[in-house]
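Contributing new records

If you add data, match the layout below exactly. Sequence lines come first and carry their own label; structure lines follow with theirs. Keep one chain per record. Anything else will be rejected by the validation script.
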Amino acid sequence: MSPSVRLQEMIRVIRSARTQGEERGVIQRECAAIRAQFRQADNGGRSHNLAKLLYVHMLGYPAHFGQMECVRLIASPRYNEKRVGYLGAMMLLDENQDASLLITNSIKNDLAHSSQYVQSLALCTLACMGSAEMCRDLAPEIDRLLRASSSYIKKKATLCAVHIVRKVPELGELFTPAARALLAEKNHGVLHGAVILITELCERNAQTLVQFREAVPELVHIMRGLVTSGYSPEHTVAGISDPFLQVRILRLLRILGRNNDTASDAMNDLLAQVATNTDSSKTAGSAVLYETVLTVMDIKSESGLRVLAVNILGRFLLNNDRNIRYISMTSLQKIVSTDHNAVQRHRGTIVDCLKDQDASVKRRALELSLALVSAINIRSMMKELLLFLSTCPPELKSHAASGIFNAAERYSPSQRWHIDTILHVLITAGADVRDETVPNLIQLITNASQLHCYTVHKLYRALVADISQQPLVQVACWCIGEYGDSLLQGDCEETEPIQVTEDDILDALETVLQSHMSSPATRGFALTATMKLSTRITENVDRIRSIVSIYGSCMDVELQQRAVEYNALFKKYDHMRAAVLEKMPVMDRSSMGQTNGESGGGGVQELEPTKPKQPEMMVAPQPASQVCDLLDLLSDPEEPSLPGGPLGPGGAPLGPAGLMSGSAGGDLLYLLGGLELTPTPTPATAPAAVTVYDKSGVVLKLSCERPLDASQTITLTATNTSDHDVSSLTLQAAVPKNVQLQMKAPSGDSLPARSSAVVTQTVLLNNPNKVSLKMRVRLSYTSQGSPFQDTVQIDSFPTPGL
């Protein structure tokens, strides 16, 4: 290929290359020819060569050697060369390269050029790659061009001013007067740029925001003119007059009306007019309506207007476009807590979205459906959710199961319905439930003493039918071990009669023990259940002894230890076996302060508190290393180590969920376990609060509701005094090993700005030895998209107010 070929010929040759190697060869030869011509002092084809080099750059090949040629062409007096030079600067240069500083003077000269087209080239380049230093040097020139007579120049100068404000926010005050004057322009391009500029100024300066609130009537007038104007070939898109400008004005009105009654009142009528007169059959109209809804929900609007906005989102749910349905459910999810009744009217449409083929739409519909569950509709909604659980994709089963557990915990109409619902989930998606489901269900069954016979019969049927669902098998084994005598009687009135013999029960448990699908934890449940049956049956005790002895040489250490100790009960302590293996007592959930997402076995509480917005109201446990880091802060090398062995309080064998020996989790259980199950009365005196943490606007206060005694109730109250919302707030606490700690569920996990709401969390302490009390609290939260974590040491506690 000749070095002097035209750009079109070079493109044709490159496209006709059959292999990538052939293409590279063509480009290398052409780049070598371009370098040679760049070295010539007088080259009339410089712009032609740079244009070819820019095409090479677009293909992804190196073209940095053309940067200085861009600087030379920008300084050229010819418009065609200057145009290619500015284009090359925008593509090959950026603000981090020294070569960009060389064009600052050329841009300044071109901004004062007599031709508006040369001025526009300089404005576009500055708006594209201007550095902070260039913006500071050229800001006065941009302010002058904002007052130019040509709408063409003012439009480009406005967009350039937007770039300057984003790069150097302190220069915003320079453009404030000119930005206000631009609102009087009739040209839509200038108006569009002016609205963007004012939006940037208001977002970065509170004083500027106050100033531009006076322009709300002017913006309302412009917006009303767009809504009522007729067809215009220059601006109308799908029957909507300039939807791009309308969307920008609505976003600016949302900023100006936020937390301001006067500005909100001035735009209420306009928003109602836009919501009722805009056609949503086209995408352009849907975009305008969506921005209208966001504005209505963000300002202090009237209640009727908010209902109208929710109805618009409800119409979006019927749209054939999945993207529109998705953003509709996303918006409804944000407002369901404040306008629950209005969103509830569209429950049927939302539930229908669970059948959508798109996975993202299904996920949003699931989250919104779970948020709409209440005590009134719990039965109908749960029927739909259980049907969805049986057909949903595998990646949604865990989320759906957790949400169903949480809803059943909060709104269950009866204990039997609650148990049936959880068992249905375990049968349908047992492999996808969280680990804490098993101890929580066991506690629920234990408390429902009148349903023991019904539950054990139902679980036995499920165990015989399928042993692949490990959580279901674990609960079934536990119930059979506790209430196997009820199963043998076969006189349950609430279920179909079933004749079960002792051999049938032991056969089922042996099948679990020998199955390759059973995990070590499940085998532990089955072995413990088998052992407990030795006190509930009379004719097969020798078979039970034989089964237990087999696992005395099991490869699994924990299972082996259980079997050895159970054998010891048979041989050395047979007189104690009945007392050790007696039924578990009823646990008072209210005194434990637990919800469905919290740890459920043996009064043990997770270190990290729960989040009410997450399914099952639980945060996943921290890795062992992080737990150890927190515990090490309060560790005592002279403290006794965690005693091993499978026997719990009173000598009763614990299930595998209650044992975590030999790990950081075991230390955690020993540190936090053993809480008393009797509720502590709350004194009538008002607690005195002290501030224990105050940083970056997040304030944490601590108050004690009873004196420093063996039992104590502490309340942690978090507020946010900054100007930015705080989300994903979690509190962790650790105390010395002699003190037992239990954290109840927090009241929320988000803190709105300016102390508009608080989050409280109650901590129960049991200090039987009355040792010197100290606590370490770890705060984790997200602010402005960035995660933060900090730790505070509390060595003294306030006394309650009198």
